[in-house]
Amino acid sequence: MGAMSRAFRAPGRVNLIGDHTDYNEGFVLPLAIDLECRVRCVPGGDVVRLRSEELPGEVELAADGSAEPRAVAGWGRYAAGVVRALAERGRPPVGLDGVVSSSVPLGAGLSSSAALEVALALALCDAADWALPPLQLALACQAAEQEATGVPTGIMDQLASVSGVAGHALLVDCRSLDVEPVPLPPGLAVLVLHSGVERELEGTEYAERRAACEAAARRLGVAALRDASPEDVADEPRARHVVTENARVLAAAGALRADDREALGRLLFESHASLRDDYEVSTPELDALVAALEDAGALGARLTGAGFGGCVVAVADEAAAPGVLARAAEDYRARTGREPTPYTCRAVDGAGEEDA
Ligand code: GLA
């Protein structure tokens, strides 16, 4: 790109604990990670023209948001979703010519699409010399994701990408949308292992699970399952997951602050069991990977993100981490015949402009 080019980055995220709680106005504890999407571009014109360094297909969209996201093929539908969501919020229709590159693995549960949405949204705002406050930008990108996929996803992924703080997890209250950075204790490693089974939320039971939660809240006469008590949901596995998971998130934030690694680890294992047995979004591979990590000496491990495939997150003492990863990978291979891909993740700052 030429001298006038601009560059924006947005991180993926790994969720330490708190899955399927965001759309119940509950709590989540993700961190923005050093796997990122970058958009380099030259602003101008009235067309948004993008190509990807990794994926096929050029995208050409009217900058006024008139392109229907679901009519656009492949990854371009996320771009169309962002262009539309920003147009609806008043962005002037200025185009750009850009290149997208991303190190966030696709279909892994690490929010590759949120990273693309947020990086592109920043580029588009800049191109039009127009801005949205960070929370509004995250909400616009959530709307873009929903338009692009037709899946009623929550706010966690886009908010984590926007609000990341280096060295911190983010305790998000998904009702007030307050974000409280919680320092990760030194010497605690956050490990991410891909099960080797990709997933997209389209075609999964994500929407069905969300509808079941909303129906349970209506039955109980509460605004959202955030407001239900453990007694209210004792006999309803889906709702019980949400209520117990919210409590685990708050306890995990406390364990991080107190640097109580054993307690944190236990909460991760309990979260996995709840997602597997009560919420039923795990897979045999994710269960095998969590078991392999437990046997290999991880302090805790759980599926991360929506489930149905993708990654597991684990915590271990930094000194023990390489051994834990190696033993768990070997065990998982033996159990499933699949190759796990490890990522050691650092918590990084949220999205922003960088040197072109
Ligand atoms: C996906 C969604 C999030 C959240 C998680 C499950 O990542 O995009 O909003 O619901 O699943 O916790």
CATH-assigned fold name of the largest domain: Ribosomal Protein S5, domain 2
Strand and helix order: EEEEHEHHHEEEHHHHEEHEE
The DSSP helix count reads: 9
- Mean of residue pLDDT values: 96
Indicate the radius of gyration in whole angstroms: 20 Å
Describe this structure in words.
The protein is α+β, with helices and mostly antiparallel strands. It folds into two domains: 6-177, Ribosomal Protein S5, domain 2 (2-Layer Sandwich), CATH 3.30.230; 186-345, Alpha-Beta Plaits, CATH 3.30.70. It contains nine helices and twelve strands. The strands form two sheets. Strands 1, 2, 3, 4, 5, 6, 7 and 12 form an eight-stranded mixed β-sheet that branches. Strand 9 (300-303) and strand 10 (311-317) form a beta hairpin. Helix 1 crosses helix 2. The mean pLDDT is 96. The chain binds alpha-D-galactopyranose. Alpha-D-galactopyranose is lined by residues 19-20, 22-23, 153-154, 156-157, 305-306.
